[in-house]
Structures are given as structure tokens and as C-alpha cells.
Amino acid sequence: MLTFEKILILYTMETIINEQSLDFLAKYLNNASPTGYESEGQKIWMDYIKPYIHSFITDNYGTAVGIINPDAPFKVVIEGHADEISWYVNYITPEGLIYVIRNGGSDHQIAPSKRVNIHTKKGIVKGIFGWPAIHTRDKGKEEAPKLENIFIDCGCKTKEEVEALGVHVGCVITYPDEFFILNENNFVCRALDNRMGGFMIAEVARLLFENKIELPFGLYITNSVQEEIGLRGAEMITHTIKPNLAIVTDVCHDTTTPMIDKKKEGEIKCGDGPVISYAPAIQNNVRELIINTAEEHKIPFQRLASSRATGTDTDAFAYSNGGVPSALISLPLRYMHTTVEMVNKHDAEHVIRLIYETLKKVDPNKGFSYFD
User: How many CA atoms lie within 13 A of 176 on its CB side?
Assistant: First the structure.
């Protein structure tokens, strides 16, 4: 029988992403948070979740962890990563043009004609990725954009002019593209990979607080840095926390868009729910707990198989501290590592709800033995 309390909780679950949530998401996404320079984004994130947790820890490279029940011996991590792909200034020509190298998996093919922000000690310097006009190119030998030929023009005529702006080798470069909502239910922005993860675990913390859920374990809401260059933030923080269980959230590819081979990538679609992964790093009992929770609460979900590594922070947690039972819940995303990454609002709400409901089923007295 549906009591008033159960109806209230169901209503809350159906309206997870509210106006306050969207304000936070927009502020969080619009702030630049390139790999190695995540601090300002982490401050925004920590400020949002502060009312919902008991304490914080941070590490020397910027990973931030909000903790509920910090004194509990059994420790559960829910995790996303905070960094976004970017570029570094690598070479400034005598004519004042800037050549770049990647900071993470930045896509050279989308760069031409994009606006950029060059981050300097003097502030943001505006620039553009230039490209030869179509009229001037040899139509018989069209040259594709590649790392060796894309360049930034910041309106200077000499290297000295560029340097006078505060630009030097090593300055980080981001795209300024900001958050918007497409056709009511689709979030679009750069860096949804994976600040959506940080957003979703923050919303889990909010729901636990608002619904007065008392967990019988310590919950470590972890926003890791430096995932885009090799899972480094998760690798560091897992040795600090020493968790007993980790549930990681990241994004995965919507494979229904053009030029993706489903026979190679599997079939995943935005709007069809969270994605539960199968991979060697995924501990079977943790995965089955998540699947059982989804089925019990009628949360739609999809399945994805990874032949070796998941390529997410799940791998870093799973293979740390003698082996941490870990699982991965992914959010389907279109156009990864572009400035128009896109996710479905309802998928995000379902990921939040699935993590929330799964946490309520975790029994620290039982654990997650592989042989159970």
C-alpha cells in the first residue's frame, strides 16, 4: 500500500533535477576545469554539496571527497571525475601563431573555426583556431585537420605581442562553449564528460539528506581529478580512502548516431536509461546488486561489455588496495570530446535514482565476497 511518505519519495524521484540542480549544473559546466587545473570547479562542487555531508577531505592534486558518516569502518565510494579535455600552448611562431599539444583526448578535427580561452596569469586571452578559406585550398588534395597543422590566432603579428599578453608555452587552452538545453530534455555542453558524473553523485547526496536516509556505513562522495590522462586522481585517492566498495559513474557512447559500428561498439541509446557494464574490473556481486535494484524499482537500464578495461576510474578503484569490489554505471552521451556533448535529462535522473536506491541496499555486515 502506498503511504503518504512513499508517495512523497516517489514524487521526489520523478522530479530529481529541479531548478536548484540546474542552476548548479550550469555554473559547474560553464566554469573551466581542465586536467591539472580543476580547483575552481572543485570549489563550486564542494560548495554545492556542503549542506548534505558531514566533512570533506582533499588531496594534494585536487580530488575532493564529501563524507557522510566519516567514523564508520565500512567505506563506500560513489565517484565521478571533474576534469575536462583541453590543449597546451606548445610553440609560438615568430609571426605570433600558436601551435598546441593535447591535455587529454582533445579532438583535432573539431578545432578549426572554434573560439578558445587561453588561461594566463593575467587572465583569459581570447583566440581562435584558424583555418585556410575554402577558396584557397587545393580541391584535389584537401588537407584534413591534424595536430601538426591546427593553430591558434589571437590577433597578434609577432611572438613578442603574444608573450606580452601573458601567453607562454604551457598555458592551458579551453573552449568557452556554455550549457544549454536542447528540445526540453537534452543537456548540451562541452565537458559533460564527466562533470555530469560529479553532478549526479552530488544529487545523490542531496536526496539522501532530503529524505533523511541514515546509512549504516561511511559514504565517500568522490570527485576525482586527472581521469582524462590515465585515471590518475582515482588512483591516488583510493589509497587514501581505502574503500570497501566503489560505484563509479562516467559517460559512454550513444552508438545510434551516424558513423558508429554497433557490431564493434555495442548498441547504446540516449533516453533508454543508465548503462551497466560487464568487464573484468566489474565485480559480479556488486553488478548484480545494481541490476536487481534497477529491476525492483523499474528503473530502465542498458548493458555494455568491455573486453579488457572499462577505460574509466572503475579500473583504478578495482585494482587498488588488494582489490576493491567495484561497478560502473554509465550515462549515455552523444558526440564525446566535442563542444556539443549531449545527454538525456531522464537518463541522468535514472542514474541518480539507481545509485541512491542501490546505496540503501548495501549491507556492510554482508560485504561482497566473490564466492558468495
Answer: 13
**Residue 115 and residue 264 in one domain:** no
Whether 365 is in a domain gets the answer: no
pLDDT of 249 higher than 80: yes
Tell me, yes or no, whether 164 lies in a domain: yes
Q: Longest C-alpha distance within the chain, in Å?
A: 76
Peptide bond connecting 194 to the previous residue in cis, omega within 30 degrees of 0: yes
For residues 180 and 195, what is the distance between their CA atoms, to the nearest angstrom? 15
Identify the pLDDT of residue 140.
84
Query: Do residues 29 and 131 both lie within one domain?
Result: no
Report pTM. Answer: 0.94
pLDDT of residue 366: 87
Structural domain harbouring 108: 86-174
Three-state DSSP class for 332? strand
23 shares a domain with 41: yes
Residues 51 and 90 in one domain: no
d(CA 362, CA 286): 9
Same domain flag for 60 and 128: no
Q: Is residue 248 assigned to a domain?
A: yes
Q: What is the CATH number of the domain that holds 275?
A: 3.40.630.10
Which cell is 348 given?
541522468
State the DSSP string of 48-116. Answer: HHGGG-SEEEE-TT--EEEEESTT-SSEEEEEEE--B-EEEEEEE-TTSEEEEEEESS--GGG-TT-EE
Q: What is the pLDDT of residues 15-54, one digit of tens each?
A: 799 999 999 999 999 999 999 999 999 999 999 999 999 9
Tell me, yes or no, whether 257 and 235 share the same domain: yes
Residue that has been written with the C-alpha cell 586527472 in this structure: 226
To 5 degrees, how large is the angle CA 300–CA 306–CA 311?
Answer: 100
